[in-house]
# Entry
Amino acid sequence: MMLIILLFVCFSYFLLLVCLIVGFRKLPETKFKKTPSQTNFSVIIPFRDEATHLPNLLASIAALNYPESNVSFWFIDDDSQDDSCTIIEELSKKHAIQNVHLLQNKRQSNSPKKDAIVTAISHLKNNWIVTTDADCMLPENWLHMLNQKIVLEQPKMIAAPVTYVEEMSFFKYYQLLDFLSLQGTTIGSFGIKIPFLCNGANLAYQKDAFLDVDGFSGNDTLASGDDVFLLEKFVQKFPDEVVYLKSKDALVKTYAVSTWKAFISQRVRWASKSANYTLYTGKIIGIIVMLMNLLFCVLPLFLFGVFSWKVIVLIVVSKIVLDSVLLLQTLQFTQQKIKPFFIFISGITYPYLTIFIFIKSLFSSYQWKNRTFKK
# Structure
């Protein structure tokens, strides 16, 4: 029985990875084209105590290659205690950024970010909403690429890529690999037409469609998940009109956290929403991945006469190789450095950290923006 369970988990995981790798390659990369700027965008940026990152964000907004008359920027202040609001006002004037609006968040639920988005939406006239984060930097042709996708394919929602600013330390590079494993999975899942992940730092959707699926209703008790839960609603309501913009010109960059404590808290926050997924594809894939990581962690126990060491080595090597292939594809797409030794060490340590974070997410609260959120 033990052998059957092991083989089933391994087969399911390896088949999943192969499908994601194929799906990643199958999804075509969108190239820059000269497309009329037909779409009017409202960019929503919730923030809380982001004085450190806002100057870089505002500089990237000033450099955007898109008609100013076709875009408005909505900064939603979630009770900041620093100079964030002053920085937005001063740098908007300095960079001559037009159509900047600064609003105070209206708290209605357990999710500050969802409340911020809803607060902004109540003021919007444009039908296309784009969300990003205050600690991001936007590529020059970001809105142009979104407009291009809208003009050519007429979707209801567009998910797009995000990566970390690359830094040299192993800790920061580990976070990059961990983050890109999610990005690679996201791209691969769209490639095989079973999307179940996206990132709210680079997400666009129609306001009318948002209202049609009743927005965040049903999951606003959860602090996290403004992106994935909304994606699930769109996939259920508009299965053929949710697309992925696989383009280097649309790649948004953000920052890794500085401490292990912050990293664990961030990942616990991300993991805490997984139990509330509504799409069975997301739940099944999550279970397969978690079981494989758990199996990886306990494999050394099987050395004592249960399985041949050759079988164990084969499983370990196969997992690391397939994980690495998906990571390498994603690193090549984001045009970031490939560090084989760091990738190997990360492949060994990743399952243990993942299981620890998953277990912690089941029982523990987490810190986010100097607030404590309970399970």
